[in-house]
Design goal:
Bound molecules: calcium ion
Shape: globular
CATH architecture: 3-Layer(aba) Sandwich
CATH topology: Rossmann fold
Strand content: 15-25%
Mean pLDDT: 97
Number of helices: 6
Number of strands: 11
């Protein structure tokens, strides 16, 4: 989250803390869909930013909003087909992603996400054995439906996942999200490989709303694990040794905790948080406008030159 003018300073940080110092701390009128594991919406540093489906009354056993899902208050668990999107300490990856997007800022505890005030919603499709493409499609369409039928201001989904070959059905779902004005921000993958040569999905889907994110280190290098691609990856963002929220098992209970993770999964939510921040300031900006502003505001970075479309890294403050 550091930047050139923070203490400590790190020019290779996302510059989010510079944006905060300039008064850009987000507003809660923006929703982000997390397509991942579930996330710990009761976490001490996430609960303030836990979004709820406004059309659904929780706990009454009735599908109030008519989307076919009963009591989908915080989202839906497509992996287990139930309404508990948080199922314990195994939902650590999703919780880590959530904290980078929208850990509550300025509350004196834990971490701060790029977007201090945001509404997070969950479409869980990853479980202990991964997830299926069929459930990924349901997860993408879940948010598209919430936006189209309820007018919820969902500006982007965070997709810190990958695997499987090309799926026309998944591409069609991403296109439906595109038509609904929802950006699809995707991890480039962790195989140290070139996505132009070997396609990585979903980050390689050729739909206008897709933004593919590589990972950089705190010294500005391409992370050793990170995929890249001069035409198939858009930009870099911090993804090595990222400290964020996790659930922790302790004495038979699950409590709020923090941990450092590595991956393009961790780079991606920096971009998603930045998109949320931009959307909160530029109310009504279209997905195309947001993407264009994002990609034109990067900081040129030698390690990313020729390795991604922009040749640069996320700069939250100039975005
Ligand atoms: Ca429902
Ligand atoms: Ca209900
Ligand atoms: Ca569940
Ligand atoms: Ca905090």
């Amino acid at each position: 989250m550091y930047g050139s003018a923070t203490t400590p300073a790190n020019q290779f940080g996302s510059q989010a803390a510079v944006a905060w110092a300039n008064g850009k701390t987000c507003t809660s009128n923006v929703y982000i869909g997390i397509i991942d594991e579930g996330y710990m919406y009761t976490h001490e540093d996430l609960t303030t930013n836990a979004g709820v489906n406004p059309g659904e009354i929780g706990g009454n056993g009735v599908d109030d909003d008519g989307n076919g899902l009963i009591d989908d208050t915080y989202g839906w668990d497509f992996a287990n087909n139930d309404n508990t999107v948080f199922d314990g300490s195994s939902d650590d990856h999703g919780t880590h992603v959530a904290g980078t997007i929208g850990g509550k800022g300025g509350n004196g505890i834990g971490v701060a996400g790029v977007c201090w005030n945001v509404k997070l919603l969950s479409a869980k499709f990853l479980g202990s054995r991964g997830g299926t493409t069929a459930n990924a499609i349901k997860a993408v369409d879940y948010f598209t439906d919430l936006k189209l039928r309820h007018g919820i201001n969902i500006v982007a989904t965070n997709n810190s996942w990958g695997g499987g070959g090309f799926s026309q059905a998944l591409q069609d779902a991403i296109s439906r999200a595109n038509n609904a004005g929802i950006l699809f921000i995707a991890a480039a993958g962790n195989n140290s490989s070139n996505n132009d040569a070997t396609a990585n999905y979903p980050s390689n889907y050729n739909v206008a709303n897709v933004i593919a994110v590589a990972s950089i280190t705190n010294t500005g290098g391409l992370s050793s694990f990170s995929n890249y691609g001069a035409t198939q990856v858009d930009l870099g963002a911090p993804g090595s040794d990222i400290y964020s929220t996790v659930p922790v098992s302790s004495k038979g209970k699950v409590i709020s905790g923090y941990a450092s993770y590595n991956g393009t999964s961790m780079a991606t939510p920096h971009v998603t948080g930045a998109v949320a921040l931009y959307a909160s300031i530029n109310t009504g900006a279209t997905a195309a406008t947001i993407k264009s502003a994002l990609l034109s505001s990067v900081t040129a970075t030698p390690s990313l030159s020729g390795k991604c479309v922009t040749g640069g890294r996320l700069n939250v403050n100039s975005f």
